[in-house]
Design a protein that fits this description.
Mean pLDDT: 96
Shape: flat
Number of helices: 4
Structural class: mainly alpha
Radius of gyration: 15 Å
Strand content: under 5%
Largest sheet: none
Low-confidence stretches: none
Oligomer: single chain
Order of helices and strands: HHHH
Distance between the termini: 10 Å
């Protein structure tokens, strides 16, 4: 169950990272409120997952899911470059996340 909680925490991290773009420096009320709610939810779920999972693994997976998801949405939503180097690098992050899951005792 902790892994599912950690995955949702990572997805909420993607939400708040992308949400930051829409807040326009926290000058827009609704995007700002949604972004802050996603931040709180993400951190709360990360803390919950850390009750069972190792701190280093939890944090690395949380950051990895957030980084990969944010980069992919940046490519899709904001037309950021999708060069081969970027995609290979994102694949390496995913491989690291999978490796941490497979090597985790929990």
């Amino acid at each position: 169950m902790a892994w599912w909680i950690l995955l949702v925490a990572g997805l909420l991290e993607v939400g708040w990272a992308i949400g930051l773009k829409y807040t326009e420096g926290f000058t827009r009320l609704v995007p700002s409120a949604l972004t802050l709610a996603a931040m709180a939810g993400s951190l709360g779920l990360l803390g919950l997952a850390m009750k069972t999972l190792p701190v280093g693994t939890s944090y690395a997976v949380w950051v990895g899911v957030g980084a990969v998801g944010t980069a992919i949405l940046g490519i899709v939503l904001f037309h950021e470059p999708a060069s081969a180097g970027r995609l290979v690098s994102l694949g390496l992050i995913v491989a690291g996340i999978v490796g941490l899951k497979l090597a985790s005792p929990a």
